[in-house]
C-alpha cells in the first residue's frame, strides 16, 4: 500500500458521483493520435446518456463493449477531446498503456450510485 500524504476527506469523496451505466454504442475515435473509442453510456432515466472517449483498444473490441456495464464518474465538467465533447469518465485500472474497465459482476439498474 502506498503512503499518500494528501488524504481525501469523506466530504470530498461524497462529491464524486460514480454511477453504473451500460455502453450502448462504441466506435473507433479516428481523430486522436492515441488509439481510443468513442462511447455512449446509458445511465438510466435520471441521468440519461453521456458520451466519453476511452483508450481501451488494447483489451476490448467494439463488439464486446456494447452491452457491458461499467462504472463512470458523471459529474465532471465536459472536456473537449479533439472534435468530441467528453461528458463522463469511465473508470478502469491502468497498467502501462492497458486499461481494464471497472465493471459489475452481476447486472444492475443503470444509474445506481457507487458509494
Textual characterization of the structure:
- The strands form 3 sheets. Strands 1, 2, 3, 4, 7 and 10 form a 6-stranded antiparallel sheet that branches. This protein has a two-stranded antiparallel ribbon with strand order 5-6.
- 11% of the residues lie in helices and 40% in strands.
- By secondary structure, it is mainly beta.
- The mean pLDDT is 93.
Low-confidence stretches: none
What about the largest sheet? 6 strands, antiparallel
Give the helix tally: 3
Beta-strand proportion? 35-45%
Along the chain, the helix and strand elements come as HEEHEHEEEEEEE
Distance between the termini: 21 Å
Tell me roughly what share of residues is in helical segments. 10-25%
* Radius of gyration of CA atoms, rounded to a whole number: 15 Å
Features:
115 residues, mainly beta, six-stranded antiparallel β-sheet, two-stranded antiparallel sheet, 3 helices, 10 strands, 11% helix
How do the helices and strands line up, and which of them pair or pack?
Blueprint: H1 10-14, E1 18-28, E2 37-42, H2 44-47, E3 49-54, H3 62-65, E4 69-73, E5 79-81, E6 84-86, E7 89-90, E8 92-95, E9 98-101, E10 113-114
How would you concisely characterize the structure shown here?
The chain is mainly beta. Helices cover 11% and strands 40% of the residues.
Amino acid at each position: 500500500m502506498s503512503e499518500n500524504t494528501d488524504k481525501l476527506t469523506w466530504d470530498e469523496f461524497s462529491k464524486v458521483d460514480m454511477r453504473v451505466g451500460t455502453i450502448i454504442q462504441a466506435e473507433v475515435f479516428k481523430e486522436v493520435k492515441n488509439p481510443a473509442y468513442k462511447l455512449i453510456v446509458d445511465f438510466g432515466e435520471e441521468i440519461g446518456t453521456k458520451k466519453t472517449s476511452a483508450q481501451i483498444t488494447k483489451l476490448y473490441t467494439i463488439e464486446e463493449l456494447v452491452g457491458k456495464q461499467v462504472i463512470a464518474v458523471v459529474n465532471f465538467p465536459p472536456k473537449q477531446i479533439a472534435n468530441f465533447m467528453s461528458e463522463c469518465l469511465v473508470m478502469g485500472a491502468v497498467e502501462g498503456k492497458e486499461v481494464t474497465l471497472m465493471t459489475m459482476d452481476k447486472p444492475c439498474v443503470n444509474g445506481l450510485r457507487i458509494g
